[in-house]
Amino acid sequence: MATDWYIIRVHSGQEEQIREGLEKRVKTFGMEELVVKVLVPTERVSEIKSGKKRIARKKLFPGYIMVNMEITEESWFLVKETPGIGDFVGPHDKPAPMNPEEVERIVAQTEASEETPTIKIGFEKGDPIKIMEGPFENFDGVVEDITPDKGVVKVIVTIFGRPTPVDLEYWQIEKV
Questions:
Q1: What are the angstrom distances between the C-alpha of 131 and each of 47, 125, 141, 148?
Q2: Residues 37 and 67 in one domain
Q3: pLDDT at 148
Q4: CA dist 22 → 72, 85, 162 (Å)
Q5: Would you say 23 and 34 are in contact if contact means Cβ atoms under 8 Å apart?
Q6: How far apart are CA 150 and CA 119, in angstroms?
Q7: How many helices (H) and strands (E) does the chain have?
Q8: Residue after which a domain boundary falls, among 100, 119, 138
Q9: Residue 116: its pLDDT value, please?
Q10: Which of 4, 43, 71, 152 sits between 20 and 30 A of 131, alpha carbons compared?
Q11: Three-class SS of residue 6?
């Protein structure tokens, strides 16, 4: 049995419901050996909203799911007839399997974010900000540089009439 990973277009925002529906149909029709796994690639993201830190799930590819399956006439028809599923990604009526290295990278990214959530920093270089916490509390500044993997934002703050670079945690500042 040779299975490959395929990308399927689905209704955006309904990826999880469509995944569950497809898995139920696979069990109902006893095709577990043909349709092995259905995956909605996501990552856990740490973000600050309304001054509170929260961890959310973010879809890597909104509007798409990944399916590990063997393409036969029966399995293709089962997938295509599942409510909410559009079509396979690939040339006209011919599903194109994903590159194995790409599948490995996506699965690794999904699994890595389960252990340590990715930090979502909602700032860009040049954004005006206000410092909410720390020794420079209530100072205004401008974002100079962002280091997402460390969660650090370099801000230019005017102290005694001189622009001074200050490294702050992303949660210590907010947009003006």
A1: 17, 16, 8, 18
A2: yes
A3: 78
A4: 16, 9, 61
A5: no
A6: 8
A7: 3, 12
A8: 119
A9: 72
A10: 43
A11: strand
For residue 70, how many other CB atoms are within 10 A of its CB? 15
Spatial distance between the Cα atoms of 4 and 69, rounded to a whole number of angstroms: 6
The strand pair at 4-10 and 85-88 is best described as antiparallel
Q: How far is CA 132 from the centre of its chain?
A: 28
The answer to whether the beta carbons of residues 127 and 141 sit under 8 Å apart is: no
Task: Say how many residues make up the chain.
Answer: 176
Give tens-digit pLDDT for 95-119. Answer: 889 999 999 998 888 887 777 777 7
- Domain span holding position 49: 4-119
Q: What is the CATH number of the domain that holds 158?
A: 2.30.30.30
Residues 17 and 59 in one domain: yes
Query: Which tens digits make up the pLDDT trace of 8-64?
Result: 999 989 999 999 999 999 999 999 999 999 999 988 887 766 667 778 888 989 999
Other C-beta atoms closer than 10 Å to the C-beta of 121 total 19
Token pair 């945690």 is found at 169
